[in-house]
Give the backbone structure.
Amino acid sequence: VNVGSDRVKFCKSARPTMTGGVPAGRLPAIPAQKANGSPMASVLLVDDDRDFCELLSTYLTTQGLAVDVVHKGDAALEHLKRTDRPRAVCLDFMMPSPNGLEVLRRLRAANDWIPVLILTANTDETDRIVGLELGADDYVNKTSSPRELAARLKALIRRADPELTEGVAEE
């Protein structure tokens, strides 16, 4: 695990079991490509809850997704300016500096249509509608299973880039 001040990149992991069937013990290193040579689809996870990010990113890597994590909205916007952009963003709405809604607003104002899945503990219908109207592609509550979240992220990636279908197909 490489740890920075507000960015974590998960390469190897020894994490405990979490809901969704991730086995306890050491997980294999995450390669840049799958065994068949196809690229792994990457996801940017943006959430200020570090423990939640650690658990979720561990699970998503077992599902064939490469995961980068940032804990602040500004860090997410900077990360997305890079040339090795992720295929999708999993964005928490309720975080500081700026919040997820503002991050989404800035992305869409800049005509950036990267697939965005809103992930939040807030269950208010108004927030879901506002997020979707601002251009979010999907909305998942944090109480949803990690398996559902992984399936929704893979579906977003497949729709946005059909050439990656093999790289994000259910295994």
Notes: The longest helix spans residues 146-160. DSSP finds six helices and nine strands in the chain.
